[in-house]
Amino acid sequence: MRLIRWLDENFELAVLAVLLAVMSVLSFVNVIMRYCFKNALSWSDEVCCYCLALSAFFALSCAVRQGVSIRVDTFVTLLSPKTQKILEIICSVIMLGFLAVLLAGTGRIAATSAGIGQKSPALRLPVAGLYGTMAFAVALSMFRYVQFIWRTVTKKEEEDEK
């Protein structure tokens, strides 16, 4: 149970930390190889590019989990707390719809690239794995929005009881 709680609170942060570490180390090593040994790694740019793309998808889930997604709330702050909660739920449901479309798209791309056996240019790795990981990150974001909606609804009920 402790592991599940830790993963619930820190999974995205851990993934983002690993991706950042991989990008930093590979970029540093490639600079050293290029300028000191005049022989750059041909594959490090590809790995860094994939890590950056994946970090964008996992950062969305992390932002939702931490409750720090970017939004303009000038109008919303003028409303009553009850109306604010309703708007938060509506916006979250809209985001769930958008993420469902994104999940379907990434799933189709992953299936298509797996079907044709598409490989990455430098490492010759199956690109379907990258797209599948993106689909997983989108599904994780959807899960985080469901969690957010649940917390918002139950918090509202607790406040009404007081």
TrEMBL record:
It is found in: Cell inner membrane. Keywords: Cell inner membrane, Cell membrane, Membrane, Transmembrane, Transmembrane helix, Transport. GO terms for cellular component: plasma membrane. Its main location: membrane. This is TRAP transporter small permease. It comes from Candidatus Caccovicinus merdipullorum. It comes from the Bacteria. Residues 23-154 form the Tripartite ATP-independent periplasmic transporters DctQ component domain. It is a multi-pass membrane protein. InterPro entries: DctQ, TRAP_DctQ. The chain crosses the membrane at residues 13-35, 47-66, 86-104, 125-146. GO terms for biological process: C4-dicarboxylate transport. Belongs to the TRAP transporter small permease family. It holds the Pfam family DctQ. One of its GO terms (molecular function) is transmembrane transporter activity.
